[in-house]
Amino acid sequence: MRCGAAFVLVLALCVALRGTADDKKGEKPLDPELKKLQGRWELTYHETAGQDDTKECKWVMVVDGDRWTVTDGDGGTSKGTLRLDPTKKPKQLAYTITGADGDQEFIGIYELDGDTYKTCDVAKGKERPTEFATKEETGQVAAWKRAKVKD
């Protein structure tokens, strides 16, 4: 009887491990550029339509895989997905904001240098920016610093 119980336990363990391995097979490996962006970021500068509005934007962003979450100073959150294309000059990004009324899509450019991440974007359908400056109402520039992990 003991051998039967041990066999069932080993069989259950094998099935569980196989399920985990199969789950991993379905996942796409994380893009190396996106991998550099993983973690918690704090907004250091924000501009909308050519105006510095950093004081009004107390944002923290967390990037996990290709998903991001931004929390504002009042506890509100926005979520979405992100795609990076480092092969373009300047490097390009596209992201969505997931909302109850559907997804909003944005396109832009970015720079990622160590612990500094800078973006300039506009609503999809507008002309993609080529420099880190805004002119249109839908445009924004954001600069982020990687948050230091406190011991």
From TrEMBL:
<keyword id="KW-0732">Signal</keyword>
<dbReference type="InterPro" id="IPR017504">
    <property type="entry name" value="CHP03067_Planctomycetes"/>
</dbReference>
<protein>
    <submittedName>
        <fullName>TIGR03067 domain-containing protein</fullName>
    </submittedName>
</protein>
<feature type="signal peptide">
    <location>
        <begin position="1"/>
        <end position="21"/>
    </location>
</feature>
